[in-house]
Design a protein that fits this description.
The chain is mostly helical. The longest helix is centred in the first third of the chain and has 36 residues. The chain has 2 domains: 187 residues, MFS general substrate transporter like domains (Growth Hormone, Chain: A); 222 residues, MFS general substrate transporter like domains (Growth Hormone, Chain: A, Up-down Bundle), CATH 1.20.1250. The protein has 19 helices and no strands.
Length: 448
Amino acid sequence: MSGATEATMRAGPSASFVQLLLVGVLSVAIMVIDGYDIGAMPLIVPQLSQLWGVEPASFGPALSAVVIGLGIGAFLFAPLGDKLGRRLTTVVSLAIIAFATLGTAWSTSLSQLFWWRLITGTGLGACLPNVLAILAQVVPAQRRASVMTVVSCGIPVGAAGAGIVVPALTNAYGWQASFYVPAVLMIAVTLLVALCLRQIPMPEPKAPVSAAKDRRWHWTDIPVLAPLGQGLLLRTAIFSGLFCFNALTMYMLSSWLPTLLQRSGFAFESASLLASVVQLGGLFGGLALATQIDRQRTNGALLTGYGVVALGLIALAFVAPGALGWGAILLLIGAGVGGAHIALPAVAANIYPQAMLSAGIGLAVTVARLGAMAGPMAGAWLIGREVSSGGFFLALLLPVAACALCVLAFVKAKLANGPSDQEATMFADDRLPTRVDPRARAFSRSGR
């Protein structure tokens, strides 16, 4: 994107370095607390199982509630940020998360726990796309992907931190403290975000009044359906498909990797350590991929990453198990799949106009939830049929190939690396008509 075009898109006063730093710190805090909230619940299950006298398997719906809520919030409520304002949507979502986290601590039954976790997930689904959209709106384009990815890394960091904090709080003050503490922190962050975002120069995305008067209402005026409008349907289908297949690969691997490793002869402790290597690789891979997105090398970086993942899976199927060798391979696989999962929201800033960025990310996150649910079930099907570890790793080549095909579709459509000057001009000032004229549609398809 040219500097002139970027300047056109960002007309008005820009945020100072201190203001940008404040937004970044608050965004990281939101992601870390949210990641902790997601990671804490599975750790509490053994404690609650004994206290409430119920089988651990009975907590399945409560554990799944956050995932279901994430999809609901991302699909139905995150796009409201494009219409009602991202600051307002973010603050309200944070308040809902804080209240629902308190509700989790107040729960005395499985049904109460399910509903509070569902509300928590819904708030998360509405909040996260808007936090990333705000970052894309205020951060300079040449650093946008890197900043968005660093902030997104807060979720796995928070989830990992839960493994340290939850046992300490639970042993000292009871399981409720593991949710009271993040709830209080989230209330504080909510107040800070409400106060600080008001000081940041950030024109809220909205369609021009003149444009609204010149045409009739169309179904794509519904925020959640805006990314499906003419001129955007192809990119939405490719982006959502990529997100979905990547999530399927990641959750299928992470859900069953400890089992596969123990089947291959690793002890419980070694298997747990090797499984965590995949998450570590995701952090490094996400940051590396973000630097390439900022340099408009998205497609090449993604294809290289999926190529490395494919080679790694083949190697695991044929290389004899060993902590050092398999650890290095799993690190590379995590960098490719986990890194893409962390960095993909930053790709949305290259393929959607700012006025529907929250909706675009929210829709992709919703579709990715389908992959996140399908992955563990596909793995369970293979495990149930006693497929060997090598066969399991080779089966993962199918969703990885689907990811690569989605990236090739981006290449064919000349998308994802960054909008051309003509396309950026068409998106300037967040104006993208619901019904694009035939020449604009042809341009969108060809990428010229």
